[in-house]
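Sequence decides. Our protein:
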Amino acid sequence: MRSLVRTKQIETMNTQGNNYHNSTHLTGSKLKESQSKALTQDECVLAYFKSYDNLGATPERVLRHFKIMEKLSERKWHNTPVTSIRRSFSNLKRKGLIYKTDMKIKGDYGKEVSVWKLVK
């Protein structure tokens, strides 16, 4: 029953805007698995904003938090690229849940990155 609910959630999310950007042309069960992971990742990123948004967030900061917290959970973030977290930011922005501020800070790669906040 739970997987049926998750599948319906994914189908609903996909009709409202695809969370998983299928650039590798996956099909069938591999596509559904990737869509499910993307939806779950978006949910985790949104939860981060809801819990730690007082200073805003960057994709690098969120990924670093997930990697630190990994020791406390079963999630495996160590292979997650920062571009994947950026995709979640884009998805959440498109849904009107977060917004990019005018603030910029120095990112992990030495370049300025935008600070994002939760829409209240």
Summary: The radius of gyration is 15 Å. The domain at 2-8+26-118 is CATH 1.10.10.10 (Arc Repressor Mutant, subunit A). The helical segments are 2-16, 28-52, 59-69, 82-94. The beta strands are 98-106, 112-118.
